[in-house]
Write a structure and sequence with these properties.
The chain is α/β, with parallel strands linked by helices and about 280 residues long. It is about 40% helix and about 20% strand. It has two domains: about 5-175, HUPs (Rossmann fold); about 190-275, Pantoate--beta-alanine Ligase, Chain: A,domain 2 (2-Layer Sandwich), CATH 3.30.1300.
């Protein structure tokens, strides 16, 4: 099967609309490219829930803060397309910036709830508005039945799920577990920025979260466990290591509900994030 590539909304809707008329369901996997096995797992999971899979490829400028280098973000459309084809995707939607944000574009999705939980939003205040705006547009453009999002970006998953429900977008957001390297490091496009030495050290975040989760299960308070985990990351500049409600990311004092441990830390010039369930 050959992957079809489209670049306009009209082309995209022509294909997905044809699927609907034929009685076929579809799942969308929004990406910014630089694809790895985690993304391809989202495609495969999409095909377990739907008849057709669409991947989108758009490096969204509204997700980048002033201190983040948009031009440095890795881009390889041909390589990404080959990977998507191998994973069984039927369609790649790769719009140009002017398709997503035409002249006089003036609308942004406003958020609260999980988008203002004091985690990623504390360090990247405009990030989730950029995510929500582009994802809303992608959902409306593709008009698929399902959307696949990885749990690695857990706060993003919660934001998108809440947004789709609140705005009555007729799409079901399905979470997919984090895909990890053999040593436990969460797969991420940003891992490509790590030097060989940094790559060896990077797994410490996952190990710290795992040890904290074990401690909480054994009776240590969530705050004490995450404080110890943060202190153990001596090679990193830690933004946060926190225990939150798995349902809504509210702050917690005790382990009386399902929790999510979330961390973000800099290793050299690369910012890594991860999370696990408790």
């Amino acid at each position: 099967m050959t992957l079809q590539i489209v670049r306009t909304i009209a082309e995209l809707r022509d294909v997905t609309g044809g699927w609907r008329k034929a009685g076929l369901t579809s799942a969308v996997v929004p990406t910014m490219g630089a694809l790895h096995e985690g993304h391809l797992t989202l495609v495969r999971q999409g095909l377990q829930n739907a008849d057709r899979a669409v991947a989108t490829l758009f490096v969204n400028p509204k997700q980048f803060a002033a201190n983040e280098d948009l031009s440095r973000y890795p881009r390889d459309e041909a390589g990404d397309a080959a990977k998507l084809e191998s994973a069984g995707a039927h369609l790649l939607y790769a719009p140009a910036p002017e398709v997503m944000y035409p002249p006089n574009f003036a609308t942004t999705v406003s958020l609260s709830g999980p988008a203002t939980a004091g985690l990623e939003d504390r360090f990247r205040p405009d990030f989730f508005a950029g995510v929500a705006t582009v994802v809303t547009k992608l959902f409306n453009q593709c008009q698929c039945d399902f959307a696949m999002f990885g749990q690695k970006d857990y706060q993003q998953l919660q934001v998108v799920t809440r947004m789709a429900a609140d705005l009555d977008i007729p799409i079901k957001v399905l979470p997919v577990p984090t895909i990890r390297e053999a040593d436990g490091l969460a797969m991420s496009s940003r891992n490509a920025y790590l030097s060989a030495d940094e790559r060896t050290k990077a797994v410490a975040i996952y190990k710290a979260l795992t040890q904290a989760a074990d401690a909480i299960r054994n009776g240590t308070s969530p705050n004490a466990a995450t404080t110890k985990a943060a202190a153990s990351l001596t090679d990193f500049r830690v933004d946060y290591v926190e225990a939150r409600s798995a349902e809504n990311l509210a702050r917690v004092e005790t382990f009386d509900q399902p929790l999510r441990l979330l961390a973000a830390a800099w290793l050299g010039k690369t910012r890594l994030i991860d999370n696990i369930a408790v």
